[in-house]
């Protein structure tokens, strides 16, 4: 063993990392020690590894994923950091939306939207789908709409279709009513409420409809349908109207 090597405790203090973090990064193959004592298993590091260790610590404080950190250490980090920045920007936008919703709840209380039961006919539709995460619903929905309206003439009748359970990753679908559509949007009995306001606040109306299910002992069946009644390009966000529908699984 070289006398220049630093034991893990001293190296951790130099790099402002914990011993536990260094062990974890070693297990991931992200920052391996220069030498491991075969008898004790104790880890030792070279002083010139401090720069990499400090880089790891700084990027993790910025919420850069470990996979992107590894690419930075390998000298291939520009694209990875741009992706990490986009993720962080999307998270900031999501939290801003959450703050606006929370402000509305604080000002007005939990929504008590009027809910009614309606029967919807089956409709022939064309559909488009996109993978999404809770932080990226809007761009995924917009991409679906753009594909459906490409070359379309007339006044579109669009329906957003979203899962009841928002997992880490899920599929967003948008349906365009069309007599020649290859898909069928099933009919049946639905609980319905009218949402007036920005699309980003529709979650409050969905909450109200699902609360109605609980109050009345019915079982909801996904997906949640959002029927868009206005053109967002020409309608102020506060005046947008959206029908929110959730099918009653136990009513035929």
Q: Helices and strands in order, then pairings?
A:
Elements: E1 6-7, H1 8-15, H2 19-27, E2 35-36, E3 43-45, H3 50-61, H4 66-73, H5 77-108, E4 116-120, E5 123-132, H6 137-149, E6 158-162, E7 170-177, E8 183-185, E9 188-196, H7 202-216, E10 220-228, E11 241-248
Antiparallel strand pairs: 1-3, 2-3, 4-9, 5-7, 5-8, 6-7, 6-10, 9-11, 10-11
What labels would you give this structure?
11 strands, 2 domains, three-stranded antiparallel beta sheet, 252 residues, Multidrug-efflux Transporter Regulator, Chain: A, Domain 2, 7 helices
Separate helix tally: 7
Main pleated-sheet profile: 8 strands, antiparallel
Mean pLDDT: 90
Number of distinct beta strands? 11
Strand content: 25-35%
Largest sheet: spatial strand order: 4-9-11-10-6-7-5-8
- CATH architecture descriptor name of the largest domain: Alpha-Beta Barrel
Rg estimate, integer Å: 26 Å
CATH homologous superfamily grouping of the largest domain: Regulatory factor, effector binding domain
Q: Give the topology string: H per helix, E per strand.
A: EHHEEHHHEEHEEEEHEE
User: Can you tell me the residue ranges where pLDDT is under 50 for at least 5 consecutive residues?
Assistant: none
Approximate helicity band: 25-40%
Keywords: DNA-binding
InterPro entries: AraC_E-bd, DNA-bd_dom_put_sf, GyrI-like, MerR-type_HTH_dom, MerR_fam, Reg_factor_effector_dom_sf
Protein name: MerR family transcriptional regulator
Domain HTH merR-type: 5-75
């Amino acid at each position: 063993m070289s006398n220049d090597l630093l034991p893990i405790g001293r190296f951790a203090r130099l790099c402002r990392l914990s011993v536990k973090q260094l062990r974890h990064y070693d297990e991931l193959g992200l920052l391996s020690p220069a030498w491991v004592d075969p008898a004790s298993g104790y880890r030792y590091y070279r002083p010139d590894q401090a720069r990499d260790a400090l880089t790891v610590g700084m990027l993790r404080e910025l919420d850069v994923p470990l996979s992107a950190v590894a690419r930075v250490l390998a000298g291939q980090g520009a694209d990875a950091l741009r992706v990490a920045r986009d993720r962080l920007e999307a998270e900031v936008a999501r939290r801003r939306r959450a703050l606006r919703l929370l402000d509305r709840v604080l000002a007005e209380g939990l929504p008590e939207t009027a809910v009614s039961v309606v029967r919807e006919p089956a409709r022939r539709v064309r559909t488009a789908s996109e993978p999404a995460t809770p932080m990226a619903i809007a761009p995924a929905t917009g991409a679906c709409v753009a594909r459906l309206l490409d070359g379309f003439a007339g006044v579109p009748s669009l329906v957003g279709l979203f899962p009841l359970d928002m997992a880490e990753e899920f599929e967003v679908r948008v349906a365009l009513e069309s007599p020649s559509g290859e898909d069928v949007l099933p009919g049946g009995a639905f609980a319905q409420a009218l949402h007036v306001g920005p699309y980003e606040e529709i979650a409050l109306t969905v909450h109200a409809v699902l609360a109605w299910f609980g109050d009345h002992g019915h079982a909801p069946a996904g997906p949640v349908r959002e029927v868009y009644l206005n053109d967002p390009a020409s309608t102020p966000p506060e005046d947008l109207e959206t029908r929110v529908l959730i099918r009653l699984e136990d009513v035929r």
